Amino acid sequence: MKILNTRSLSATLDTVNEAFFYGRSLSESQRGKTAKWIAERQGKAGSYAQMFAPTEDDFREGIRLFTGEKISSRAGIAHILGEEACRVLILLNAPLKSVQDSLRRASLGMAQRLEKARNRDINAGRRWSGMYCCGRCTSALWRHLTVGGLKDAEGERWLAAGIEALKHHRIGNGRWRRFAFHYTLLTLSEIALASAVEEMRYASPICEQYLRRPPKDDAITQRRRLLAEKILERC
């Protein structure tokens, strides 16, 4: 199975995420080679907060999240792929000093952004929500935090505050305002908080409806169906 696609950070991350999602093993060589290439993109032109830069193809063509939602804005592409790249490097766990050093620099850059965002809310007298930018960017951040990233950013507090805020974005039909449904479910499925389970229960009727549909034979549908099954198991 080919993992690395040097023309696209998005495609590379998607392949790695698919392997982890389905429980497929990656060889030490695959892990090391992929991690090294991702790490070399740290802080390059186009990166967000000194994380890992998308390629020109990513910016030109736009990207799809693992669950299929499209992202076309340059800022959204840079931020989300940066968070996802940090997450993937943590999961790949390649014991290369260059990789770990790049991850530390990327984490520092994003942690500083989070601290500024949190202080901005507090200083303005607003309740800190545990959210960052839009719903999709917030989900990407939470996915990064869930695997133990951004250790200096009080990740557990961000997650707890964020899931509480998500509850207030419910629109009453199993979905949320601002948040991409399937990507949010993917994020929730990895969070070990009772409040996350509550949000999964809220969305469970939509998952049941989705599984009753005739399945299509494409990668995104297969991922969404397995995700829906996982959500219902957690509920």
Protein traits:
235 residues, mainly alpha, two-stranded antiparallel sheet, 62% helix, globular
Describe this structure in words.
This protein is mainly α and 235 residues long. It has one domain (9-234). Helices cover 62% and strands 2% of the residues. It contains ten helices and two strands, in the order αααββααααααα. It has a two-stranded antiparallel ribbon. A hairpin with a 5-residue loop joins β1 (63-64) and β2 (70-71). The relative contact order is 0.11.
Any idea what the shape is? Answer: globular
Order of helices and strands: HHHEEHHHHHHH
Low-confidence parts: none
The amount of helix comes to: 55-70%
Tell me the Rg in angstroms: 17 Å
What structural class results from the helix and strand content?
mainly alpha
What is the first-to-last residue Cα distance? Answer: 33 Å
Could you report the average pLDDT, rounded to the nearest whole number? 96
The proportion of residues in beta strands is: under 5%
Biggest sheet, open or closed, and with what strands and sense?
A: 2 strands, antiparallel
List the total number of helices: 10
What is the count of distinct domains? 1
- Give the strand line-up of the largest sheet: 1-2
Counting DSSP E segments of at least 2 residues, the number of strands comes to 2
Secondary-structure topology with pairs:
Elements: H1 9-21, H2 28-39, H3 56-61, E1 63-64, E2 70-71, H4 74-92, H5 97-123, H6 135-146, H7 155-167, H8 181-188, H9 194-212, H10 219-234
Antiparallel strand pairs: 1-2
Helix pairs in contact: 1-4, 2-4, 2-5, 4-5, 4-6, 6-7, 9-10
